[in-house]
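Hey,
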Amino acid sequence: SDRVLTFDHIRTMGLSSSSTRRLPRIYHVLAPLVLSFVAQHGHDCGVAAMHADEAGVNDFLLKSAGHGDVGVAYARLVSTGRGPPDAVESVWVTSQSAAHPSAVVDDIAMDGGGDGAGDDDAYGGPSSGGSDDRCAIAARNITTGDVIWRKHACTRTSDGGGGGGGGKTFVPRHATLATAHLTIYSLDDAGILRGWNSPDGSSVLDADVLAGVDPGNDSGLSFPGGVPRLLDGGRTAIGTVLGKEGDKRGDESLVLLDTGTGQPIKEEGYHHQRSTSLLSARMLLGKARVGAKRGLGRARILDMHPLDEANNRIAIWAGWSAADGETGRAVGSFSSMALVEVALTPKPTSEGRIAMVYQIVRAAPLNVAESPQSVASAPLLLSSLRMFRPSDDTVSMLAISATDSQLLVATIDASTSRAKYGQLVEIDALHPYWRSIASIHVDDTRTVLGEDTSAGKGSSYHVVRVVGTDDRFPTLPRRMESLFLLDGNANQLSSTVDRNAFHRVYGTMKGDEEVHQDALAYCADLGAVVATSRDDEGNTVASTFRILSDDLLQNSRRVTWGAQTVGGESGAIIPSL
């Protein structure tokens, strides 16, 4: 019953023979769509994860990725550092772990009342068992769709928790993070960090994070919300977030982990003391002089990303939060956030080895004073917060408002912590039939459009996909995905900007709002948009439409993808587990 999306299956899309040379590129677009679609609808087939003692013996059983009825939530394209003809250049890494491993986890995660990450697509679909029994990470060949390797990522067996059974929302027991440096990291709920080699899945790292921070765990360290998080700090460090049992405020602390050893990175001058591995969010906010506003009493670690990889500089984001009275979700605002810059350097230890240490270089509040006041102060769901870097010195932020009816957009100059652009987008502008915003997805890669724009030579756009719910039919609410572009170079402080930095790309028909798109993607190399939906028979159907990059810059009119499909008619996609 196991089924795999193959190169031959993609041919069913009806592409002409003249277009087959571009099919591998199309697979790059189709793969995340199919994987995310299967995550929502799931299947009851699959095989158990293969353990180390089975390698070379039961390899022939690898027909599926082992994600079971939960399906795929996390999917990333990862380089293998190799090339043809000896090996594939890249692999698709998939897991049923959180789609956004760095996202803030709500306390409702373990209560079965929500997915813990602020949107319905953060984790896989409903699980018949409700627990992460398989706990699998897999890699697929990007050309054939074949599973190259699969690993079990958890230390202990499931206790049957994770949101409970009976079809309740699945909660994963591990986090997966694929980096740009050939290594895939996993962190399970027992605190074991593992590193996997992208070409063959071989183990390159195995470390006990909790024991490294506090060998006896006298502090009662645990993962807030019961879900491990992994934050990407670049080639030198990754991070995770811990809390302490008995802390009534629920404050969080960041632990920086050496990507080579998995060991906690301690503060410079204090690397012999284990307590200095914890970067308290409350301490970081204090250094930035960001006080807790009325009702916001919990200090949270929001995210982390490279700032200057050449000099091992990392940006850490912290903020204050409160729990929403009705839903229990974590609520904060841009005006309650701080950016802290940390420098990492190698230092000799008393044991005669070299270890990385950190030093806080600067801490500053997020300055959004010159953005629209509504953007600065609007309550937002911290678990929906997405950060990405349009350029080395710029950070863009997207978040869903606490009312689920607005999208908050901000672009920050990381060198000054000052907002260059801010926008509050009402739900009607996103889609006229949406009644609530469900989730935000930002593609990993950025697209350069145009050669000479007001933002300089080319504008750096990120493709943003927003999912909303149309509840005009209460018995069967419709979830629809729309495609947007965000110009990361937009600067409201510059008089040369004359366009909206965040705008929607529409479908081909006049009644586009009535067309149900389950998933969308934009492929700049092909000049195409891929749209998928389910037909009346329950099959996933993909259509690929033409669109020119120059058209995407025309904000003065309605931007649409062309009515002409690329190469022919639409075709069904066979799901992959």
